[in-house]
Model the fold of this input.
Amino acid sequence: MKKVSVVLAGACGRMGQEIKLVLEERAAFASVLEVDRKGKCKQFKALKAQPGVVIDFSSPELFREGLAWAVENEVPFVSGTTGITDQDQVSLKKAAKQIPVLWSANMSMGINFLLSLLPQLKALEGYDIQVEELHHRHKKDSPSGTAKMLQNQLTTSLKRKLPEPVAIRGGGIFGIHKVWVMDEEEVLVFEHTALNRRIFARGAARCAEWIVGKKPGLYQVLDVLAAGTNRD
Ligand code: NAD
Done:
């Protein structure tokens, strides 16, 4: 099997560092070219090599640069950057006409499995539903991209308006997401806890490995789950 070379955007960040460790452990990947404003990293415009995939965990600004570069160079694009706008979502769809694209605010398999369950809450008509999230004090966006993703899945599948997600910031929490489902006589809570950043890094690496060789299109982590490569 030919090894895949990677351009990693946000390479010096918390997620970038974790992803580098995971890529080093996985046989499918070869060299990693690092893009960041810190350290000895390069900028997209200075890149000469043609990688097999771009993995981006950075900021909305670098996400935009990375996506444009991936389209120009016809390289698959996997991104977990949050805080991106509706216009960025339009850009992802546009890019997906030319290259394979996978963006997700949460690359863990557990959250994506939960997403697939939420439409079933339609059966619990009249129950109050509330999304809640807790993250470390350094997290810039609020509510989290994952909370928005859960909220979006709930409002579109249940076809009703819900209260805005509750966001709590503090300490070193990697990420806790809850969906409260409440009646007067019972409470059901779906809860996902990320125990470390590695869970997202492993998810990103799996998505990157899976997307190489795919046709242009907008893919989801659920597509990777459905492909059945459940374990690393
Ligand atoms: P971080 O701040 O630690 O790292 C971001 C890195 O990107 C930094 O090293 C910074 O220098 C670099 N960067 C940002 N903008 C740049 C620019 N314009 N030019 C050059 N370099 C630039 O952040 P983090 O905790 O690693 O998170 C990165 C992103 O990933 C965030 O959006 C976060 O919410 C998201 N995230 C997603 C998931 C997921 O599963 N999808 C999980 C965790 C974090």
